[in-house]
Amino acid sequence: MKKFFGILHYVSGYWKYAWLNIFFNIISVVFNLFSLVSVIPLLDLLFTADPKSYAETAAKGEPAVSVNVSSALEWINYKFSVYIASAPDPSAARMNILLWICIGIVAIFFFKSLARYLAMFFLAIVRNGVVRDFRNRMYAKCLRLPLTWYSNERKGDIMSRMTSDLHEVEWSVMSSLEMTFREPVTILAIIIMMIMMSWQLTITVVLVTPIIGLILSVVAKSLKRSSTIAKEKHGTMLSMLEEMLGGLRIIKGFNAEEKVKHRFGEENEAYTSVMIRNYRKTDLASPLSEFLIVTVIAGVLYYGGNLVISEQAFKGAFFVGYLLIFFQLITPVRQFTQAYYNVQKGLASMERINMILEAEETIRDTASPQKISEFKNAIEYNNVSFAYQRGDDGYAVRNVNLKVAKGKTIALVGQSGSGKTTLADLLPRFYDVTEGQISIDGVDIRNISMSELRSLMGIVSQESILFNDTVYNNIAFGVKNAKPEDVEAAARVANAHDFIMEMPQGYQTNIGDRGTKMSGGQRQRLAIARAVLKNPPILILDEATSALDTTSERLVQDALNNLMRNRTSIIIAHRLSTIQHADEIIVLRKGEIIEKGNHQELLSKNGVYKQLHDMQTFV
Question: What are the residues facing 400 on neighbouring strands?
Fold first, then answer.
């Protein structure tokens, strides 16, 4: 129950609308009870055929009125009897009363329906507002989480939590409000009314109700377990779908369609089996609760019928009215059961959502970050070591000491897996060092706000990361109030302006998902133009020219050389021909620096760099 009430915590910003929902639900319940009680005088009017009975009732005198349904009905019956008995035409008088009763019933049902609509009207704000807040919180959290967290998660599973799991929570919010306020209030009001009418009949119902709840709760707990498994299976399927869409070229090229299809089919079959069990358990809620309630109704019919027939404790019309009110108990109890089932499914989804919301943010700003508005002197790596998992013996970077003076160009080279990209990623705090520290102008980067730290840097990654937007917005990405002439100038520097102008809408052309409407070289030049426009003091170029053809590579390399002048640049390269101009070349192997120097110095050492250079020279 603690977890259930935890869902209501997320309604805290919408209590004004939640209370309005509760208020109008209560009004709806009150009008509903009045509509049912009003049927009893109608039945008395219809079933009393002898006009003498009205005169006899009128002759008894006006009964005392107390807070009791029977007393109130006796008083109403007396007033009707006096009116009919004193009328010149009793039949016409009865028809007049019948008309007013019918008008009264219509009016009561109108206000009941209006109150019910207003309750749902305000609930819509709560439902959609809570889900909107969840989406915003999850999206913002995903942006804050470090890259190491994503290495253990599937993209599809994260997407599943932000879509289908949130949908379940939406229904849980609605169901929890209904279950916590409307249905219990409705059930309590009906039971109080029933007690006021006949405590003997009602006590039987109250004693049996906990047994019904116990039976239904057992099924609901089983449903929660199945729902958790179903969510995990759904996330796995979305991951497989994302992999398939991203790897279609390889799948087709290796004739792996059947293998991939078979793998997805197995996962889909497992998901379907779990969902079948879920639906069966969910669908069991309504008929099971209805059967149990009807069993109780049968007992009430027998016991109440005995009170009417044998003991003549009350009139038949009164007992029919009691039954009508009792029948109204079925709907809220059944909805209460269904809401409880929905909440159990929602709790399973909440646990999965909280895996994101409560994930540890290992990389965050300090409470009082130091201000650094510009880069003045040098970047220093002091005894830096890094492992992707805490406590992992396999360090990706180990005992690195490196100083990058302002205005210098440093190149990182080495075989794949030597730690080049990891070493560069530590500078903008994509990861935090495991040991040692990295400082800019003597300030530990962990004491600088990430916003200010990253504003000093422009990054062009090995894979061109573009967004499903226009060319203009991709180049101006992250730059506030970018001017069209500046965007065009950046594109010219990156040798991208000519092919952009050949597109249908020029700079306003949409480039599709991840820039699939362009070639690899064009995508890379847009990424370079984005870094050019930012005009940062520090550049990180991770194989920035790797996807360019020979002609474009030369033009862009010249542009980068001009761009890197008077800037501090860290270049990651496999092609050594592109970094021969670097002020210092760092050779890495298994995360450690094994050689340092400029191009000529490293060649003269006849070491690892010379071997790499010779291999590329003869290729």
Answer: 384
